[in-house]
Amino acid sequence: MNDYITIAIPKGRILEESVELFKKIGIDCEELLSKSRKLIFENEAQKMRYMIVRATDVPTYVEYGAADLGIVGKDTLMEQEKDVYEPLDLKFGYCRMMVAEPAGLAKDDDPSRWTNIRIATKYPHVAEKYFAAKGVQIELIKLYGSIELAPLVGLSERIVDLVSTGETLKQNGLVEVETIAEITTRLIVNRASLKTKNSRITEIIQGLEKLV
């Protein structure tokens, strides 16, 4: 099995876009879109193996070599800071990582005067790093569900979260205050695999590079 290339991919929109991209460079993984409950798919003819994993687990599988390649959002990479090689921005799944707060608070608020604030987020590491660079002390509350709820019930005044259209924020009376980063989907590679399977991995990277 050592001659196989293993790719870790999360479910959902990233999976659909990835299958489409791979198809364009001659890699057939349509089976991943089937309703099967399988977690590992193999294409013996092309010596490819695909693992369906949680988005937050992709960098771990790649860092430890259980997968040679992975496809994951930049937000996950920023939060985890795993030791992986990140050769390519795949240019899909665009959104922004934002600081947001209730519209009523934003009217008279001046972010440049923040000194000590409470933030609810799924991205504590990113938030801490961002505000530390600005010299702002923060109290962090880590949540796993709908972050927009936190200001509505007084859990925190502000949130750090991903925003795509901004519609969810708007419906919950929140407004964007600052942009931390622009987020897209990335291709990541295990550092050892890049040496041991260099020609095949380089061929995939170069193929995708021409498309994006």
From TrEMBL:
InterPro entries: ATP_PRibTrfase_cat (IPR013820), ATP_PRibTrfase_CS (IPR018198), ATP_PRibTrfase_HisG (IPR001348), ATP_PRibTrfase_HisG_short (IPR024893). It is an enzyme of class 2 (transferase). It is found in: Cytoplasm. One of its GO terms (biological process) is L-histidine biosynthetic process. Its main location: cytoplasm. Pathway: Amino-acid biosynthesis; L-histidine biosynthesis; L-histidine from 5-phospho-alpha-D-ribose 1-diphosphate: step 1/9. One of its GO terms (molecular function) is ATP phosphoribosyltransferase activity. Pfam families: HisG (PF01634). It comes from the Bacteria. GO terms for cellular component: cytoplasm. Its EC number is 2.4.2.17. The keyword Amino-acid biosynthesis applies. Residues 54-209 form the ATP phosphoribosyltransferase catalytic domain. Keywords: Amino-acid biosynthesis, ATP-binding, Cytoplasm, Glycosyltransferase, Histidine biosynthesis, Nucleotide-binding, Transferase. It catalyses: 1-(5-phospho-beta-D-ribosyl)-ATP + diphosphate = 5-phospho-alpha-D-ribose 1-diphosphate + ATP. Catalyzes the condensation of ATP and 5-phosphoribose 1-diphosphate to form N'-(5'-phosphoribosyl)-ATP (PR-ATP). Has a crucial role in the pathway because the rate of histidine biosynthesis seems to be controlled primarily by regulation of HisG enzymatic activity. NCBIfam families: hisG (TIGR00070). Belongs to the ATP phosphoribosyltransferase family. Short subfamily. Heteromultimer composed of HisG and HisZ subunits. HAMAP family: HisG_Short. Lacks the C-terminal regulatory region which is replaced by HisZ. This is ATP phosphoribosyltransferase. The lineage of its organism: Bacteria, Pseudomonadati, Thermodesulfobacteriota, Desulfuromonadia, Geobacterales.
